Amino acid sequence: MITGRHLVEPGDFSIEELDELFVLAERIEADQSYLRESCRGKLLATLFFEPSTRTRLSFEAAMMRLGGNCLGFAEPGSSSAAKGESLADTIRMAASYADAIVMRNPKEGAALLASRYSAAPVINAGDGGHHHPTQTLTDLLTIKRLRGAPGSAALGGALTGLTVGFCGDLKFGRTVHSLAKALSRYPGVRFIFISPPELRSPEYITRDILIKAGASVEETDSLEKVMGELDVLYMTRVQRERFFNEEDYIRLKDTYILDGEKMSLAKRDMIVLHPLPRVNEIAVEVDRDSRAAYFKQAQYGMYIRMALLASILGAA
Question: What is the topology classification, in CATH, of domain 10-131+301-312?
């Protein structure tokens, strides 16, 4: 049971608990009226100290579809943080008003700190370049839905034995870090990291988590070279907001652009994921390819967040 618990990083929930969430999300997808009023009278505080579109809107849509309501802010300038209020005090205040808190913050470790001061469950919606666990739940559900049999034992097996390529900003990409860590818990997953040297995945991910877990890890700077080996390609944008030097961003931002020519090198059943927003890294022509799953991925994000909120609030 995950009722009343915090979600700071993907490892906070067991594999069995994740599977229960995925099955619940599938049931919600199949029956849009399921759990429709289960959170009536509940309040969700959405505290976004950093810009967001999909994550914030999908959480708010999820809560409203469950019959609950939302309160909060979409940027720190409209909160007392602009007056110098500490994160701990903001969290104490929000927990006194709401039944659960969703927070995005640009500082690594902010979600863990918030969980220590909150009387209500805290859900991490991204803390700097560290973790983004609900995006990870979205990514895992998408892979399972598109590569496994819904609602069956085969569903769990859809995450084993995969070859997954992560391409782009692997240094600062919290979605990459969270998903790689989560996938390392499943047997036989092979990781291929595709990036320029300046944006390689941190050693605490590749060495201290993946290799330590016994996973196969490869690094390359060529997308074309490994394209035909991939079951899943996880594209990411080069994040302008993480760079201190504008010249470095301009030099690296268009290193990898997925287009129709590169897609012709891929397996027929490979799927392309992207946490969005995209900038130039996926050409619009790829949207027409049946293997492009990033917009489906965004929709699955609402279903898994409905399942998560209903479970944490004891409504499922």
Answer: Rossmann fold (3.40.50)
